[in-house]
Amino acid sequence: MSFTVINLTPRIGSEIKTDVQTLLSGKHSRDIREILEHRGVVVFRNMPINDEQQVAIAKTLGTIPDNEGEGGIYKISLDKGINARADYLKGSLMWHSDGSLQKYPNLGALLRPMKLSEVGGQTEFANTYAAYDDLSDAEKSDYDKLRVIHSAEASQYYVRPEMSYAEVQQWQQVPNKNCPLVWQHQSGRKSLLLGATCDYVVDMKIEESRALLAKLRDWSTQPQYVYRHEWQLGDLLIWDNTGTMHRAIPYPEDSGRLMHRTILEGEEPLN
Ligand code: OGA
Ligand code: MN
């Protein structure tokens, strides 16, 4: 069956035109992995699949963790009745990457809309390989040396700016992670590692650190590095979580918006 790739913007995002059987067969899984690494996001339109097929497609691309969701499907919703961790998921409205506190950040994820919001709810992705590549040589050599402390607590201030002492203590129980600002991948390529879990740059004055993290987030999310996905029912979207950041555009909590997500486990340690 046919398998056609169309680039959606010059620097990020490709649409693949194919059919369910071809995807399930896994015969293009290597091509898809390669497109993901270089284009950050892969979109399939009019791909009418069910949960089992979503998980089966994910398994042609990588490994599914056994601790997320039911049968490999995790429900993304801001409605507490659907996801008890809906408050935590409000963090998905900020630029982030998934599993940044893990030793092996997630390789990627598959996302499929079950119900859309009438307003908002698009998902944006930024290519952090491209953002790194376009830095000057001087910036690259400065940033290559820097380390950033990531914490769950830092990401929560975006969701609840005035946390109580008890809440701060609770989030501080999640271990911090000391990460390179520039992820040197096993492939030899480099990407910027940013997002809502960034707390501070090690050995830098706190004001300078905050300014640098904001500057690099601004830099990495310039229009030329960003793909905004306008969802339609029947879409299947896959992203490479190791070379992109993403966020949802705000949507009403009671909009009913529901996404089914399947995670691909990380394969590369981040030390
Ligand atoms: C996620 C996520 C964004 C969205 O599933 O990890 O951040 O648009 N989702 O729901
Ligand atoms: Mn996410």
Please give a handful of descriptors for the protein shown.
271 residues, alpha+beta, 7-stranded mixed sheet, 3-stranded antiparallel sheet, 25% strand, globular, binds N-oxalylglycine, binds manganese (II) ion
Structure description:
With 271 residues, the chain is α+β, with helices and mostly antiparallel strands. The protein has one domain (1-271): Double-stranded beta-helix, CATH 3.60.130.10. The chain has 9 helices and 15 strands. A 7-stranded mixed beta sheet has the order 1-2-3-13-5-15-4, covered by helices on one side. The longest helix is centred in the last third of the chain and has 15 residues, at 206-220. The mean pLDDT is 97. The structure holds N-oxalylglycine (OGA) and manganese (II) ion. N-oxalylglycine (OGA) binds at residues 76, 92, 98, 109, 111, 123, 246, 248, 259, 261.
Q: What's the helix and strand layout?
A:
Blueprint: E1 4-7, E2 14-17, H1 20-25, H2 29-39, E3 41-44, H3 51-61, E4 74-76, H4 86-89, E5 108-115, E6 123-127, H5 128-133, H6 137-143, E7 147-150, H7 152-159, H8 165-172, E8 177-180, E9 182-184, E10 190-192, E11 198-201, H9 206-220, E12 226-229, E13 236-240, E14 244-248, E15 258-264
Parallel strand pairs: 2-3
Antiparallel strand pairs: 1-2, 3-13, 4-15, 5-13, 5-15, 6-12, 6-14, 7-8, 7-11, 9-10
The protein binds N-oxalylglycine (OGA) and manganese (II) ion.
